[in-house]
Amino acid sequence: MSVALETGSGSRAIGVETVGMTKAFGNLVALDDVSIRVTPGSFHALLGENGAGKSTLVKCMMGFYQPTSGAMLVNGEEADVPNPRAAHAHGIGMVYQHFTLVPSLTAAENLVIARTDAPRVIDWKAERRALSAFLETTPFKVPLDVPVSGLSAGEKQKLEILKQLYLDQRFLILDEPTSVLTPDEADEVLGLLRAMTEAGDLTILMITHKFREVTAYADDVTVLRRGRVVGSGRVRDLSVEDMSRMMIGETEIRESAERTAHQQAALKLELAGLFADDDEELPAIEAISLKVHAGEILGIAGVSGNGQSELIEVLSGQRMLKDGRIFIGKEPYEPERGQMDAFKVFGFSEEPLKNVAVPRMSVAENMAFRTFDKAPISPFRGWLSPPPMRRQARDLIAAYRVKTPSTEEPIENLSGGNVQRAILARELSGDVDILIVANPCFGLDFASVAEIRAQIMDQRNRGAAILLVSEDLDEILELADTVAVMSEGRITYQSPMAETDRATIGHAMAGHH
Amino acid sequence: MSDDAGLMTVLLAMFAGAIRVSTPFLFVSLGEMLTEKSGRINLGLEGTLVFGAMSGYAISYHTGSPWFGVLVAGICGSCFGALHGYLCKLPKVNDIAIGIVLMLFGTGLAFFFGKAYIQPSAPRLPAISFGAWSDHPGIRQALEINPLFLLGIVLAIFLWWALRNTRYGLIIRTTGDSAPAALALGINVDRVRLLSTMAGGFFAGIGGSFLSLYYPGSWTEGLSSGQGLMAVALVIFARWNPLYCFWAALLFGAAGALGPALQSIGISRGYHFFNAAPYILTLLIMIASTSPRRSLKGAPGELSITK
């Protein structure tokens, strides 16, 4: 039989199976008859798009949801998991996409409080001795006395995994564990986990959408689409094309626009020595100097939390600049509404409902944010005329294929992809000279991602200067003409895309340059 | 009277006043600190304070035991805390709005039941004399210290220790800093907050009983003059640290004692201005400790003001 089963026998790892698991929320069937089998000591990848049912499946396994029907087997025996505590008792633990560490507590405090049998009064001397002894038995190293808010993303992720091992959970569910890590950190963490599965100490079920991680680390793979299992098997028997076809199905994906060549383009956007502080009044960005030319996409790569969001906030007028100037063409630029309009500066970012839309206002109102104070929507000082606003919204909804029941629907009721499309319609329908984009495809499905990337490329070809900040290195590699890497608030590396590669950029992201 | 003696008198009066006036601040701020550490703000502590003052006084009057009054005031405070904790658990309920409601409810209820106790005089809390060694009457008087102040110090040190060295301390900090993390640990977030708010209410109730049973020492409707609300500012100033709460309470107490102290040596000009010192101090502290450019350092991550 399989290699995994043989190494699994007599080891501490456990195997988990679901049989015909179905979960319905009202009329919506999120999981439909899903059976997967994760053998002890194996590294199993769960692939699927956003909304394919991956989270619902693991939440059922963890006891956050009760499946409508179906059963779960742990080491071949039927297990009842009414709540997460029961899952933990079976040795099943989960590492969430968002950290579940308590920021103000130290690593040691986080570990001790995670224990169900934490003592009433904590004898820190004894606990520290026990923790050090435990750390000796694992390959992960993390400083114990620093508040978690002071750890790097990689250290936090290691601490999350350590926490599960500390609780003696031998079946780990990892939800996109590498989304906040540099490529090097991701390889280190997954490599160590892989070694533990090979030693038979651990079984891993990893949710991911990165094929590279599946082919490099996983033994088996299960692919979900619209709540159903659409394929599974040994990773070595499948090609990346096979897996991506299973994931996407027959959905039509818009082809990316051709990249047209621009000759001797004019300088459009110049950032000259920008400095700004974060919310703690510590330097967040330091001496950021960048130039973006017409018809160029400048991609800023970096692991989240290295000053990218502060840079975007500075450029969109949400954060005070401590020093430095922004120029457009040769003229100084202040990110205020009037100047944005005059210089034709537009932009959008991840999670639009949080960042660039008012969730409870209607689609039409949200689409009019750039134009509501101008004729025809505002025919007269301070007065608003709804019919032109609705007409404009109807045109944009049709042109950008936004799926919404009406123009008057609160925008928060739309799906993520449609909200982003509505914002795209608002920002891109006019004449765009400068475009500032941050993680535009975060959390969206394949079709929306392709659409949005194609739109960005269209704007580039039309001659807009585009500053693209993305935590997704693949997005930068696909779109950017020039790449810059941001690390600890500084631009640490910059190169034309033709003269660099993934590994070089990845090293620069980790601070080796 | 020479200038030196006058200054000495003012300083002594301020020292004694700081200890007297700071005690309710200390209890309310420790209560508010504990509640906020668990992730909720209870603005209703002003109402709890006033109701604690009324109920403590009434019980002391009827039973003749001021200490029993203190206990009942604390229990009444817990009931207000429980009400706040329960209401905030309901979906789409804002803790600040509920706090304001409970503040008005608490004071209103205290005025309603308290009408009968404005005239009669109840037995008051005793003081402990630490000044027997001195024959200076001013020093002796200044060192008449009430046991509740000492209890407050012990409580502050205990809370400081317990928040880092006990399981419940870590659970409260976890709940206040990250509700998702707490849920992932299997902690019942609502229950932790309910219990923390109840404990906070208990402390605030005790703080109220001090007002009516020791200083000023009688039940009147204008007793609290906003001390419960100032405690909220005080907690921010103290950065959610129980030991800093103690020093901050002393500072507020000294500011509150400034007016009476000056009056005691015959300076009555600007009396009302000096009486307003605690309010001005609150304003100055809030201006100095906040900034549009940074978030509050040390604030529990779940507080609705920091989110």
What is the general shape of chain A? globular
Report the oligomer.
Answer: heterodimer
The number of helical segments of chain B is 13
Q: Architecture of one domain in chain A, CATH level 2? A: 3-Layer(aba) Sandwich
CATH class of one domain in chain A reads: Alpha Beta
Helix content of chain A: 25-40%
In terms of topology, how is this protein built?
The complex is a heterodimer of chains A (513) and B (307).
Chain A: H1 3-8, E1 16-25, E2 28-38, E3 43-47, H2 54-62, E4 69-74, E5 77-79, H3 84-89, E6 92-95, H4 107-114, H5 124-136, H6 153-166, E7 171-175, H7 183-198, E8 203-208, H8 211-217, E9 220-225, E10 228-234, H9 240-248, E11 267-277, E12 283-293, E13 297-301, H10 308-315, E14 323-328, E15 331-332, H11 337-343, E16 345-349, H12 352-355, H13 363-367, H14 386-399, H15 416-428, E17 434-438, H16 446-461, E18 465-470, H17 473-479, E19 482-487, E20 490-496, H18 502-509
Parallel strand pairs in A: 3-8, 3-9, 6-7, 7-8, 13-18, 13-19, 16-17, 17-18
Antiparallel strand pairs in A: 1-2, 1-4, 4-5, 9-10, 11-12, 11-14, 14-15, 19-20
Chain B: H1 3-37, H2 45-63, H3 66-89, H4 95-114, E1 128-129, H5 137-142, E2 144-145, H6 147-165, H7 167-177, H8 179-184, H9 189-213, H10 227-237, H11 242-264, H12 271-275, H13 277-289
Antiparallel strand pairs in B: 1-2
Helix pairs in contact in B: 1-6, 1-9, 1-10, 1-11, 2-3, 2-4, 2-9, 3-4, 3-9, 6-7, 6-11, 7-9, 10-11, 10-13, 11-13
